[in-house]
Amino acid sequence: MKSISTIIGVALLFLAGLCYFINWHALVPAFTVLGIAIMTRKALEPLIIGCAVGFVLLAMQGGSKEFFPEGEGMIFPLNMFDGMFSSISRDAHDQGLIWVILVCILYGAFVQLLVASGGINAVGKYSENHVTNKKQSLIMTYFLSFFFFLDDYLSALSIGNTMRPITDKFGVSREKLALVLSFVCVPLTIIFPISTWTIFYGTQIAAIEGGVLNSAGKVITSPIEAFLGTIPYNFSAWISLILGALVVFQLIPDSKAIKEAEANVKVIDADVVKVKKKPAKEGKLVYFILPLVILIWCTIFPYPYDSEYWGSVTFSSESIFSSIDALRGIATACVFTYLFYLVLGVIKFNKISNNFVKGMESITFVLVVLGMTYLLKDVQNGLGFNEFVAEKLQGISWLNSATLPFVVFALVAWICWATGSNWGIYAILVPTTAILSRTIGADFWLTQGALASGTVWGAAACFFSDNRVLTAQSCKIDMMKHGISQFPYQLVIFGISSIMYLIAGFIL
User: Fold this and answer.
1) Are the CB atoms for 442 and 405 separated by under 8 Å?
2) Cis peptide preceding 77, ω within 30 of 0
3) How does 214-245 read in b/e, with b if 16+ C-beta sit within 10 Å?
4) pLDDT tens for each residue of 206-237
5) What is the DSSP code string of 415-473?
6) pLDDT tens-digit profile of 20-43?
7) What pTM, to 2 d.p., does this model score?
8) Three-state SS letters, 198-221
9) In the chain, what's the furthest Cα-to-Cα distance?
10) Contact 296, 150 (CB under 8 A)
């Protein structure tokens, strides 16, 4: 496996060098990051090197007022540092990045409070009493994930921490546990009407210039209504959920990497654990269930304490869906959980704040990787990555109404896979794909579904995307091992989805 990874990594680095010499500079950072990531199986270092390469290329080109506001005209390499600092400053004020950081930090603190209270241990104990073998532990992992539909971050962190002790007990490799999560976490949030992904993606569609009409001929203004039309066409998400079920029910064989991981797994001896490790705090199911209910409720109804808000709510699907706020939901849930545990004496006063901070600290590496991913996206925007790809698409003779959904899916999927970005790419390409679908007469909802599906596949398949980082974090596994072990399954999902988009393109 290592030799294959080395060959692929070297090939990608060769492509990066080739792109430099033929002046395809926009592709150099992406190929560099992927090549080094596959060879080293690291997450942070390849991103740092890729960003550095991108800044060097920008500086050699002379930069621009956007990337080099103070240092335009400086000699190389001095202008490189000005560009880097300008980009960091710009990302530090990016509302999207700030939102992600706050949500990640609070989810980390929330999960740590659940762990410290014994709530997650109680769920584990309950599950353990109803799980008697390896297969059942994977099935429970799969279906438990459906209760965390609000956000992929919450799902990855909560399910991994909850089920890891149980799957460890029955000899399930952590690679396979992480694989099951990769089948569910992101795909579920993109096909469930109430989720952070649905809100963000629906907002982009509703904001398309000229408006989008529903079946009644009225302009769609609700983000949820806008996104509902794409859900049937999110083929990669549906296939991922189906493939995940086939894996946990053992209806298809494991890949070579998963078989190797399963063969090398060591079943934890409970007696040894009792001697060497302090037993986990005994908790109650209510310590887990009540905070989770509050989280879900306050995410859907983010102003539970505002009487005017309740007076204005009509409880229609449109008004409820449009009010979803993941940040307010997790913030309110953290405050409630903190006070709930404190008042009932679940966690002692001198320990509850320590656990809250500990949960925040556990997300530090994730946040650094996320920051570098945003920086890489910024660099690639400066090099014209998206414009370069769009330009190469122009003039393709076989790009028509039947093939557009497939082209959109395949192109976006690999762009997101290469960059680790999904929401940003989606926001950039929604207007472009809308214009293309209208111009050449392709089905609008199928094309938008293909766009969303491509970002979902890219987020799930990318070795260093935010969800891969969080999944590896909660499953206590090396991120690159997880990324490589689940990649063959992602290729299957990509292949089947591509065929379905081709068929749907000719039918619709």
Assistant:
1) yes
2) yes
3) eeeeeebebbbbbbbbbbebbbbbbbbbebbb
4) 767 566 666 556 666 666 677 888 899 999 99
5) HHHHHS-SHHHHHHHHHHHHHHHHHHT--HHHHHHHHHHHHHHHHHH-TTSHHHHHHHH
6) 888 888 888 888 887 887 677 676
7) 0.71
8) HHHHHHHHHCCCCCCECCCCCECC
9) 70
10) yes
